[in-house]
């Protein structure tokens, strides 16, 4: 019986660790990939696993948070419940600003996230990332700063983005990139 319990526990842990990648590859929400109902109906955690490390928002992540889209509010609620640090680069504030959105609503969304300024070391890291992957700064500077911010954050790191291809290339294999 102990061997059976070990086997079941090991298999569940392996799948739980892969859930963000599975959901991202399939283009579906994590609760759907995990076969879980939202926490509001379950009264428990938001996802089929404990979220840990750092959650990074890019422009689209912040925009969806401002619009209070359920997928993003679910991610944020899960992170807050598990005491996970939610961050974004300060350049995301500028990139995501839409003049049609009420400033108070924008500020309210931003207040739920730790804003990380691009220090010289983050900017230099972003520059090295662009050089390593052969992309021009004038086109990919903001994504590179988001990637450098993610790579400087405590692991494991998950980036929520509408542009998983570019951020996966810029972040490398050490960061889970999930399409939102």
Description of the structure:
With 180 residues, the chain is α/β, with parallel strands linked by helices. The protein has one domain: Rossmann fold. 58% of the residues lie in helices and 12% in strands. It has ten helices and five strands, in the order H-H-H-E-H-H-E-H-H-E-H-H-E-H-E. The chain has helices at residues 2-26, 30-33, 39-42, 59-66, 70-81, 90-96, 103-110, 120-133, 137-151, 164-171; strands spanning 54-57, 85-89, 114-116, 157-161, 175-179. A five-stranded parallel beta sheet has the order 3-2-1-4-5. Strand 4, helix 10 and strand 5 (175-179) form a beta-alpha-beta unit. Helix 4 (59-66) packs across helix 6. The chain is globular. Mean pLDDT is 82; it is low at 10-16 and 35-50.
Query: What amount of the residues lies in strands?
Result: 5-15%
How far apart are the termini? 41 Å
Q: Into which percent range does the helicity of residues fall? A: 55-70%
Biggest pleated sheet: 5 strands, parallel
Topology as H/E string? Answer: HHHEHHEHHEHHEHE
Our count of domains comes out at 1
Supply the CATH superfamily name.
Answer: 5'-nuclease
Summed over residues and divided by their number, the pLDDT gives a mean of 82
CATH architecture: 3-Layer(aba) Sandwich
| Name of the CATH first level | Alpha Beta
Question: And the CATH topology?
Answer: Rossmann fold
Structural class: alpha/beta
